[in-house]
Amino acid sequence: MKKILFIILISTTSVLANQPKEWQLGFQNPASDGMRDIVNFHDNLLLPIIIAISVFVLFLMIYACVRFRASRNPNPSKTTHNVAVEILWTLIPCLILIVMAVPSFKILYKQDTIPKAEVTIKAIGYQWYWGYEYPDENVIFESYMIKEEDLKENQPRLLAVDNEVVVPVNKVVKVLITANDVLHAWALPSFGVKRDAVPGRINETWFKAEKVGTYYGQCSELCGIQHAFMPIAVRVVSEEDYAEWLSGAKIKFAKESLLENENIKIAGK
Ligand SMILES: [Cu+2]
């Protein structure tokens, strides 16, 4: 019985790890080193500082309301300046900002330096779906959201797509991001990745997924009426499964066949 419970627990957590869950307050569970940095930074540094500041300001407000109320101070103080207090309320916030900035810049630099990529994918934002290319493999395909009425079991609403991006686990994946029409943004919370997709320009980011599974994200730049319906789904698989998927994809999603189809379409017009 215990064993079954354990298995259920493991399987449900691994499913929930990759997508938003009901009543969720915090971040999604990290599935990459970069996201773990972000979560640590938020939970262990920013949040305590924010809570301390909020409690302190609340205390000051209550104290001032009680201590300096009109009934107790019929003749109010005429003080307008206090140099010591003014220096303190300038310096202390500056110090707090510096304490927050140093680790924040460290994380930003780490995200910005892309290690040698083992797999490169290109994400292209369209109104309103994502196109993907594996430039080194001659693979190209489009990825549309699955409509609510067509959802199969275990496919999350507004997140599942027909063609998922497939990448190998524990490999550095470099993502080139651009758009074809308007601004979009390629965002995957579990990997700590979010980059604008700008027409005529290529942005770069990277991630190294640590766990096998399907991870969901969404376009994160208002791009038009169907902005909410262009999700991102990345399936992280073992190296062998990736090789197998790739050999199939090279036939199914070959660049040449796509160009041929386009030509047929154009010729038929
Ligand atoms: Cu978009």
Can you lay out the helices and strands and say which pair or pack?
Blueprint: H1 2-16, H2 33-67, H3 83-112, E1 119-126, E2 129-134, E3 139-143, E4 165-168, E5 173-179, E6 184-188, E7 193-197, E8 203-207, E9 213-219, E10 231-237, H4 239-252, H5 255-268
Parallel strand pairs: 1-5, 4-10
Antiparallel strand pairs: 1-2, 2-3, 5-8, 6-7, 6-9, 9-10
Bound molecules: copper (II) ion.
Number of helices: 5
Heterogens:
copper (II) ion
Largest sheet: 5 strands, mixed
Measured between the Cα atoms of the first and last residue, the distance is 64 Å
Q: Which stretches of 5+ consecutive residues score pLDDT under 50? A: 1-17
H-E order: HHHEEEEEEEEEEHH
Please tell me the overall pLDDT. Answer: 89
Task: Compute the CA-based radius of gyration.
Answer: 25 Å
Alpha-beta classification = alpha+beta
What fraction strand?
Answer: 15-25%
Strand order of the largest sheet: 3-2-1-5-8
Helix content: 40-55%
Structural shape: elongated
Count of beta strands: 10
